[in-house]
## 1
Amino acid sequence: MDVYDLSFFLSTMWVGPFWIAMLLYPNHEMTHKLMQGPWFFFGPIAIWYILSLSDISGLVNLISDTLDPSNALQGLA
């Protein structure tokens, strides 16, 4: 499992309980309390930053490719 698969898996597992709570119990007070804080979107962002920092060379390549205007779109692919 590479870094990208791991980040997708961890982000999905983080968001899953929030989605299930919203799907099954949308009007329950616990669901409202769960969705009030920033934890719904903070988890996947934190996971992405941690995994990106674990592979610095990939992050450096992404930044260096996007700094060149003629190569910006190819750097994202």
## 2
Amino acid sequence: MENDLEQEIHNLAYHIWQSAGNEVGRALDFWLMAERMVIELAADSARLANTTATSAWEATTNWPSA
């Protein structure tokens, strides 16, 4: 899984580098930018999955009326 994450960061950093006009000497900047974006996306996906799972569980649980 770590290799998949690293490959995703690599691919995104490459696209960012291309979008920036193939600037030389900014590899670390592009890598860190891509890393931040991938980690934020993964965190957002995890939060969404957790919210969806919680909602599904709550919908199937018979809670007593207040």
## 3
Amino acid sequence: DPTFYNDYFLFWDMTGNVLRGLHLPLWVYAAGAVALGGLLLALWRLLRFLLLGLPTERLSVWTRAGLCVLLLGALGETAVFPTDLGQPETAVSSLVIKLLENSGRSRLAYARVNQFNSDNLAPHYQFTHNNLTQKPDIYLLFVESYGSVLYQRDDLLPATLRLHNELMDKLRDNGWSVASTRSEAPTWGGASWVSYTSALTGLRLESHAQFLALLDKYQERPFPHLINYLHDQGYRTYRLSSIGTELDQNTLATYQQFYRFDQWLQFSDLDYDGPLYGWGPSPPDQYALNAAEAQIEASGGDAPHLLFFLTQNSHYPWNPLPTLADDWRTLPDLPQPPAPPAERPSYDVLRQHYMTAVGYDLKTLVDFIVEQGDDNDLFILIGDHQPARVARYSDGWDTPVHIISRNADLVDAFRPYADFSHSLSTRDITATLHHEGLYSLLMRVLLTQYGSDPTNVPDYAPGGFVD
């Protein structure tokens, strides 16, 4: 639901990102500011005229009586249906009720923003003193817009099942074990950074405001999240952000001070000069992922590593898409794709674009696993949230999660904690895991399997460490 406190921060930050990404000349922004100022002035004058310019003495007794009846009716409806009048679905809703409810949600959001202090959190992270005796390479791969809506539309379900069967056969034929379940995302239709930060920290973040507050609180001191824990265990940690529009240096420094990856690979680090696609726009995920892995192998030595990546090509608008290449190094040589049509595609066409984009990225990731993965590597594929413009709120907030490794014992160690299938399909699974529970699940499994102190492992907290 709309919430002033949350939406203010989101609007302010995202507007800045959009304006920077447009790369328009300065005079365009100046003209836009003047036009906006003129519009606000015109609205003010119109409102002033409506409130002060109408001569009330010209209203008849009957008109005044009718207005009183309407006013009493509105007040009566407010008394009888105080909650319904604040819902957007109500045919005739009340602005005042909406403002009051929004104010209440804003106060609650403000209280939640300030709940993550170190004294409350410290007892939940005692396991970070337990060392790993074996250290598999870990790939935490978030798949943009990969939601359970794929199982809830008649035109998406058959293609989804075929895709999962095809990719499962490829994994099984190459000796990979798979466990799949669903997880409830903390966001819906967007705000990927809120979703994956919940997974990395073990905290349920529900808004951009909470995200910003957490970043601000832990700029000077490290937060005991997954990245810092693995770094302390001797891992080299990498973040791949391949989007063509890079973060400005101040924002990047703020993010890096919180996440503390050893290396943050951006578009300019990928040596890519080919066509760009879709959101961002961005290079092909196939190229970005393999180029990043090549750099990791060249610079990492014998140290274990973690690679974190959020796919770009499965982000709205899902068109145009790159093609899968036999050799990822040839992708920069492809011709520039034609621009998508200016008119908005129909809903049916949009769903097919979405299905194709998810298929492209899942094929990319499975090919990467089969071609680059080693015997003890652990791959975690997880959707960040349901896709906006394709899903509805009634479809829920679940996304698929896939645990993949050639080490079957490691994969099986996840199974007692949630309803895991033995394939890529999550069609008949009910989510008991939440994204903020992934950290405790992963650490419980790793420390149970490889920890030096088997008594110091976190409890599995499917809803996160802090209620």
## 4
Amino acid sequence: MSKKSGKSLDLLIIRHATSVANTKGKLAGRVEPNPLSPEGRKQAEQLAGVVEDFNPTRFISSPLTRCRQTLELAGVRGFEVSDEIVEMDYGKWSDKSLKRLSLLPGWKKVQRDPLSFRFPQGESFEECRERITTFRSRFAKWEGERIVICSHGDIIRILINELLGREFSTFQQLHIFPASLSRLQVDFAGGSENGLPRLLYLNRIASQAPIAP
């Protein structure tokens, strides 16, 4: 791992590779076991070069198997685990067919007014936002680091949306593919507590993700 340098926090954010639940069209949530599919394992292995070239100082993963496996197959041999970037708790919607869920009355509310919605016996978007905000609060302490984060589609969409200062519901306009990479730099040189974020690229596959800005 490299040493800190400069004033910017450099983030390489990876969505876990394709899981078994993804191949079945299910909303997995936190249901385990949900390992990577054979295709997902290949995707994760293809991330190794980009991850190595990024020269990270720190790796942070969701505790769920599909994220851990993604980093391990990408050649990472040691990472922190954070519950703050675990998948949303979809409650009774977990492990259900996305096609069937899209027919439920609550589906439209999730798309149009997510902050007012709580998944049945699960988490609300407001609670999810709060833990992501807690995670972000440590960014200033990581000034100068190069951090790889492996998490989940909704978590990544919300994190990037919040970093860019967009209205909450607009996170729905972002789409994050399995095994895709997104890169942001957060500049703390001006003394801002939250820093000034720059989105360098979003939702790229390994072969399209250059390390240079």
